[in-house]
Amino acid sequence: MATTYKVRYKNHCVPQEQIASGGRYYLDSDCGRKLTGNAETSATLADSDAGSSGGTLTTGVAISGITEIVTAGSNADFVYVKNTGSEDVLVTLDNSNYVILLSEGEAFASEIHVDSNVKVKPVSGASTIEHFSET
Amino acid sequence: MPNARRVMFGTYVIPTQSVEAEEASIRHTEFQASPNGTLGGKGVATINATQWADDWTSMSHWLSDLWEEVGTEWEAALSPTWENFGTGSGDVTITTTASDHQLSDDSNDLAFLYIKNTGADNNCLVSLNGSSGNFYMIVPPNGSVHLRGDGTDLECNEVYVQSNTSTTTIEYVIAKE
Description:
Number of helices of chain B: 1
Helix content of chain B: under 10%
Radius of gyration of chain A: 18 Å
Oligomer: heterodimer
Number of helices of chain A: 0
Number of domains of chain B: 1
Strand content of chain B: 35-45%
């Protein structure tokens, strides 16, 4: 009995504009609508017959320096990382360019290239994260 | 011009497993054992009220609302029919040639990026470090990705996209700090 694993995920956003200082925000007129995508990982992830047991959520990971969450060569297909601490966290997908910023409560989720090497580090001090990846 | 702009955003993730029944070719889908539930996060990105150009979002088609900038030869620009006047759908076609698909030529720091693959068949690949960089983010058909820039290193002009094969279409928002 093979068990196969997938990840369904959605990234959505609502651009807004404020017409007058102190006023309420409205849907941004340059976009005109809310934006969202909804997909399942494009490839069926490894099944139990291949020795996989699916992904594993790791929570409460304390970070004060560079921390690796997807090892190079691990052939991971999907990564999710959330900043559960109070300090901003930077994320790189290629082991060098820490250009994705996560503030408290924010998350990043994407299918990734199998050569990705995902690492995180706090902007300053220390923070905590949770992460999930699957091969 | 608005007084201020922001983007509210969220992420929702459901890890699932499809389990085959004991004696028949019947499957059911359930949460994976870990995390045995859903994951997600949300936030608000403050972006510049005055964006780098009108096409900071693909929905703002250059023909859709800039009548005064169409020029003196608007007849030619609109040729052959009014139907060409732009739908505002936001869809932009991309090919496998990354160098043709720089989302912005602006050198300001990137504040927020959203890309959705609106195509039906092929993946959209995203690079955050130029056309010859690593296209490590993969956006499947109907999927999307968003991120905030770090505010110092990632510039708007470093984001490139390409289709993994043939062509696909995307819609996007690329906003400066």
